[in-house]
Amino acid sequence: MPFFKKPLAGPGYVILNVIRIMNIVSFIAVIVASFSMLVKTFIVSKFFFFDAVSHVITAFLSMFLLLTETPLFRSYFARNWPLLAPTHGFLTLGILMTILGVSVLGNLNKEATSQASLGASYWRIVIASGIIVLIMGPANILASYVFRQKKLGVTARQVRAYGAVAAQKLPLHLSPSASVRMDAKHRPFGLLARSDTVPAAATGGTTRVNDPRRNISAPMNNVQPDQFVRFEGEPIGKPDLAHHPAMVGGRF
Question: From CA 154, how far away is CA 242, in angstroms rounded?
Answer without folding.
Answer: 75
